[in-house]
Amino acid sequence: MSGAPAGVTESLRKTHSTVTRRALFLLRQSNVHNSFPKEGRTPMTFPIRRALGVAVVAAAAGAGPLRAQQAAPPAPQVTAGALVYGQYLYQLKDSLGAGHQNQFSIQRAYVNVVGKLANGVYARVTGDITPSGTTNQVLRLKYAYAAWTPTGSDLTAKFGLLHTPWLDWEEALWDYRMQGTMALDRNKYMTAADFGAGIDGKWNNDQVNGQLTVVNGEGYSGGTGDNRKDVQARVSVRLLDTDDNSRVGGLRVTGYAGVGKYTGGGDRNRFVGLLSYRSKQFTLAGEFASTKDTVSPAPLASGTNPTGRVISGFGVYHLPNSQVAVIARVDVVDPNTSVSGDRQTRVIGGISYQVSPNLRVLMDVDNLSYEGTPTPLQDATRSQGLFQMQFTF
Questions:
Q1: pLDDT class for 147, splitting at 50, 70, 90?
Q2: Co-location of 96 and 220 in the same domain
Q3: Residue 234 lies in a domain
Q4: 187 to each of 164, 259, 308, 311, how far by Cα in Å?
Q5: CATH (domain of 266)
Q6: Confidence at residue 177, expressed as pLDDT on a 0 to 100 scale
């Protein structure tokens, strides 16, 4: 072989030369001071003194860079990405005479900046670009929080504008947020993010996971509210394993409780139970929610102190050895169980295709029917044909 590269050889030569000169200097000094050894000591031989001198000099030369390397903190990892939901809508039927809609739109565009910092610190900022009735789009904050997971801990503390316990988890189970929001969100009983503080926890590879938050209660687009606060908690337990070991995978029972006050007064209470089964091939879930509002007007209900009920069931089936999936969902909302004629039922069905890991498309029908006559507070849309897409990068 022709030998080591020139840069490596030169570096070794320079290091050897420097070490040798320092070693010779120390050896000379050693010979001067140790010419007449003290009584009872055996004089060192020259080879031993030289070896010790070289070792001391080499250790001193490398100690400085080693200390600097150990003291330097790890560099922060900052990533940026985007998630976009777009759609084409054609109005199939409308009982309120709003006319047949025929339009393209971007329903949501999220811009995410995530930072992984030293000592288990994590930060996220998400901008939410949403349609507006008066302008093209409106930009608002969806998330802006810092999180900290102590070394070896199962708990993560969060502070800022953070996700609330229920909707973020349920959307991950359903996995088709591109079609629209979940039943409790769509009917204004919950919001996906709020200002406050919380703790996330997971144990035994997500066999048990949960979240506890104290938030303003008005949502990320509803302002900071007053001195009243909402307490929200979710816990999910995996009863049976499947080939999906994520935080929503397996046979699970999940419960949620949210207790709080509206700005200005009035109770805002939500209790939810859900039984779900999810594997890589299919998802099945059934949900029951009870709502209590002591404020007028309450979400989707007239009068004071309405007790509401929301029942939702959904499923996803992935065809074997295919990128095709079939989805179905039914939402039944009764805003006031003591009043007849206000129940509404939404039925969603469609077929999706995973074009690539970054692009999914969905063709579906969204049909909304009312037990009685719709009120202005309710969605005038009765039946829609939709072509929707989700892409991320």
A1: very high
A2: yes
A3: yes
A4: 16, 18, 11, 12
A5: 2.40.160.10
A6: 96
CB 288 within 8 A of CB 271: no
- What does the block give as tokens for 377? 């507070």
Contact 327, 336 (CB under 8 A): no
Give me the chain's average pLDDT, please.
83
Q: Are residues 226 and 331 in the same domain?
A: yes
Q: Is 156 contained in some domain?
A: yes
CA separation, residue 355 to residues 38, 140, 184, 231, 279 (Å): 86, 30, 30, 41, 21
SS3 233: strand
pLDDT in tens, 107-139: 999 999 999 999 999 999 999 998 876 667 888
Residues 353, 41: contact at Cβ < 8 Å? no
The confidence score (pLDDT) of residue 303 equals: 58
Higher pLDDT: 77 or 136? It is 77
DSSP 320: T
Sequence-ordered list of residues with C-beta below 8 angstroms from that of 160, at least 6 positions apart, any chain:
143, 144, 145, 146, 195
Find the domain containing 340 and state its range.
89-102+149-392
163/23 same-domain check: no
Distance between CA atoms of residues 163 and 174, nearest Å: 17
158 plus 300 within the same structural domain = yes
Quote the pLDDT of residue 227: 86
| 40/97 same-domain check | no
Judge whether 172 lies within some domain.
yes
- Tokens 């919950």 locate to 190
Supply the pTM of this predicted model.
0.78
22 with 97, same domain: the answer is no
Task: Indicate the range of 71-85, 115-129, 190-204, 328-342 predicted with least confidence.
Answer: 71-85
Q: Say if residue 64 is in the same domain as residue 166.
A: no
DSSP one-letter string for 93-158: E-TT-----EEEEEEEEEEEEEEE-GGGEEEEEEEEEEE-SSSSEEEEEEEEEEEE--TT-SEEEE
Distance of alpha carbon 331 from alpha carbon 381, whole angstroms: 15
pLDDT above 60 (res 295)? yes
Of 37-41, 136-140, 298-302, where does the model show the most confidence? Answer: 136-140
- Is residue 281 within 8 A of residue 320, CB to CB? The reply is yes
Cα(342)–Cα(332) distance, integer angstroms: 11
Tokens 């009982």, residue located: 95
pLDDT in tens, 204-214: 999 999 999 99
